Amino acid sequence: MKLYADGSYGPKTKRGYWAVADSEGKEVASGIEENSSSNRGELLAAIAALSTPDVEVVYVDSKYVASIFSGEYKKLTHNLDLTKKLVDFRGKAKVEWVPREHNTLADAIVRKLRKGDK
Asked: Between the CA of residue 48 and those of 7, 14, 41, 74, what are the distances in Å?
C-alpha cells in the first residue's frame, strides 16, 4: 500500500496538524498536537503512515522527515521523541520525498483540519 503523509502548523493556536491519505485521497489517519511545530506535524504524519499495516511506501514533502528516515540527517537535536520512533520503522517500509505539488491528497486533509488557524 502507498500512503501520503503531511503536516502543518497553525501559528494562531501553536498546534501541529497532520494527516495520512491513501492513493485515492481517503483519510487513513489525522490528528492535532498542542504546542507543536510544523516539523512535529510532519513527523507525526510519517509515523502514523508507517504504523499502518501493509504499508510499503510513504510519500512525504518534508525533506526533514525523509532525510532523518534515510539516515542522511545526522544532527538530531530537536523532536528526539519522534525522530526515535521514526527511525524504528527503517526496514519496514520506504519513505520517499516528493515535491509539495505531488502530496496534495494528504495536504487537502491537513488544510481542512487547519481551517481558521492561519
From this structure: 11, 21, 11, 22
